[in-house]
Amino acid sequence: VAKGAGKSQWRRYESDLHSAMVQRLELRTALDHAVNEGHFLLHYQPIVDLHTDEAVAFEALVRWHHPQRGTIPPDQFIEVAEESGLIVQIGRWVLEQALHTVSQWQRILPPGRLHYISVNVSVRQFRTPGFIDEVRGLLDTYGVDPRMLMLEITETLLMRDDEQTWQDLQKLRDLGVRIAIDDFGTGYSSLGYLRQRPIDVLKIDKTFIDDMVDSPQQHALVQSIVGLARTLNLKVVAEGIESPEHRDTLMRMGCPLGQGYLFSRPVSAAEAFAWLNSHARLAA
Ligand code: C2E
Ligand code: MG
Ligand code: MG
Ligand code: MG
User: Fold this and answer.
1) 24 exposed, middle or buried (CB, 10 Å; 0-12, 13-18, 19+)?
2) Is residue 283 very low, low, confident or very high in pLDDT (cuts 50, 70, 90)?
3) Which atom of ligand 1 is nearest to the CA of 78?
4) Which residues form the EAL domain (predicted)?
5) Disulfide: which of 64, 111, 138, 148 matches 72 by Cβ 3.0-4.6 Å?
6) 85-89 long-range Cβ contacts below 8 angstroms, 24+ apart
7) Secondary element (H or E) of residue 8
């Protein structure tokens, strides 16, 4: 490579790097502003009983409601929120908003209609001192039965396999709150971990469901996760069900619950409640 070309490549690299940094900084500043102004909203995606197509639970999913740019999905800001620590405030708002919504729903719904609401918790949020007290306090404030709350954690949280994390999860479960491992199979947690641990649900990541119908290998992988869940006495929920083939395959494997665009995209609280209240089955 000629010296000149190398130099100009380096300059381009530098300027790309620079603009990426500027963009990140701008994003962080805008996010900071959004946190102060409360520019977030929650959508709810139904978790469906695959045998009846009935919504039995919902996962709360955050969106950034940007005054100029409209609705921004979490993939575009959760990472920066996590790095900057803003996720702690965002996560607190998400939990409060979800419990507030459930407290309103449960005043009207027949008992047992809604099984639970699922809320994503980031590693940083989980490790913030006082997190468990906060969960307890919010359940109390909104008068929500702790069994109505499922917290979704990721394998990253379990990677260190430290006793403190397991103890904290156990404390949450002692309250009655349930714990799901989100995106199960994408991390590096060893399966041995999961025996006798305070975990209730494995959520099979969408990437496994995607190729399951065409690839025997993926099929076997999903089957083995369902089998693992059964062995460990855990419930299993499949993510990213987009076709009737996905649903039928999962049902044959013995997976009872799932969520995905086949049933519904994440929707507003009002739309979610309309389904629950009418007992209507979801279009599929
Ligand atoms: P996740 O927790 O695994 O949530 C499932 C994601 O898959 C959602 O994306 C959902 O809309 C999408 N999805 C569900 N079914 C389908 C399908 O059939 N096809 C396709 N293509 N996608 C499907 P979303 O809402 O964009 O959220 C992305 C991720 O952002 C979440 O993945 C979660 O990791 C994170 N996230 C969302 N809300 C929160 C939150 O309140 N706190 C934290 N810490 N993270 C959150
Ligand atoms: Mg999730
Ligand atoms: Mg997930
Ligand atoms: Mg996922």
Assistant:
1) middle
2) very low
3) 45
4) 24-280
5) 64
6) 85/124, 86/28, 86/31, 86/32, 86/35, 87/122, 87/124, 87/125, 88/124, 88/125, 88/128, 89/35
7) helix 3-37
* Ligand 1 atom with least separation from CA of 205: 3
Measured CA to CA, the distance from residue 147 to residue 247 in angstroms comes to 27
| Ligand 1 pocket mutation, candidates 61, 80, 118, 213, criterion most atoms within 8 A of CB | 61
What is the value of ipTM here, to two decimals?
0.98
Tokens standing for residue 280: 């209507």
pLDDT score for 194: 84
For a mutational test of ligand 1's pocket, the pick from 96, 120, 263, i.e. the residue with the most ligand atoms closer than 8 A to its C-beta, is 120
For the stretch 217-252, pLDDT in tens is 999 999 999 999 999 999 999 999 999 999 999 999
* Position 25 pLDDT exceeds 70: yes
- For residues 180 and 236, give the distance between their C-alpha atoms in angstroms, rounded to a whole number: 9
**Other CB atoms within 10 A of residue 202 CB:** 23
Instruction: List residues near ligand 1 (CB under 6 A).
Output: 45, 61-62, 73-75, 78, 87, 91, 94, 120, 122, 152, 182-183, 206, 239-242, 259-261, 266
Residue 75 makes CB contacts below 8 A (sequence gap 6+) with: none
What would the pLDDT profile of 164-220 be if each residue is shown by its tens digit? 999 999 999 999 999 999 999 888 666 777 888 999 999 999 999 998 989 999 999
Distance 46 CA to ligand 1 centre (A): 12
- In this structure, the residue with its CA closest to atom 27 of ligand 1 is 74
Does residue 5 have a pLDDT over 80? no
Q: Output phi, psi for 158, to 5 deg.
A: -95, -5
Cα of 153 from ligand 3 centre, angstroms: 9
Q: What is the value of pTM for the model shown?
A: 0.93
